[in-house]
TrEMBL record:
SMART domains: AAA. InterPro entries: AAA+_ATPase (IPR003593), ABC_transporter-like_ATP-bd (IPR003439), ABC_transporter-like_CS (IPR017871), ABC_Transporter_VariousFunc (IPR051782), P-loop_NTPase (IPR027417). PANTHER family: ABC TRANSPORTER ATP-BINDING PROTEIN ALBC-RELATED. Residues 7-210 form the ABC transporter domain. This is ABC transporter domain-containing protein. It comes from Actinoplanes siamensis. Transmembrane segments: none annotated.
Amino acid sequence: MADHPAVEVSDLCVSYGSAPVLAGVALTVPAGTGVCVTGENGVGKSTLLRCVSGLQRPDDGRIRVFGAAPGSSPEFWAAVVTTVEPPTWYPGLTTREHAELICRAHGQDPDDAGVDEALERFGLAGHGDAIPPSLSSGQKQRLTLAMALLRPSSLLILDEPEQRLDPEGRDTVARMLTDYLSTGGSLLMASHDDKFAVASGAAITTMESLAR
Ligand SMILES: Nc1ncnc2c1ncn2[C@@H]1O[C@H](COP(=O)(O)OP(=O)(O)OP(=O)(O)O)[C@@H](O)[C@H]1O
């Protein structure tokens, strides 16, 4: 895995109907680094992230994630966390139980994985016994990111992680992404907040610069 870039995209083309959205997009995220894709609304950032996440088949082009095609293999989903799709909450499970579940699903003891610390760090300690649908939109986003960062992974694919977060929440997430990168993780994200992206340790690249 370490021999390959985290993400390698070349000649990626996606159209919706007759409207081309991505035309010959190329992108590399070296393993252990972070890249943030920026650009105006509708330029195709989420489409790119969906394709790299294996959630959308491009019309043309080549995508490799740690040297393999993205998709439905257990190895891919053991290595990759994507927040491109909005989360689905389990009926009747609390915020804490969601965090515990994600740990257990990945073979971690929730205490050892630091569920309490994660809830505290994300400002959710007082909401551990609430069910996620009752949380505010920013608190839901905090829980989504806490769960993404609690489980082991090698690549995070995050679509506008700063969305709905207050300034303190953005700072917390940026610090945690910097830590993630410093421990060898790789990051591909889309964002409208350059300051947040830089604070996260990601190199900024515009969608425009990725197209041929
Ligand atoms: N399922 C779909 N069917 C048809 N058109 C779509 C579909 N998904 C996206 N599009 C169109 O493709 C273009 C790119 O959308 P995309 O969501 O990838 O952009 P984005 O850069 O992530 O935008 P934003 O900054 O608003 O999140 C837009 O014009 C959008 O309307």
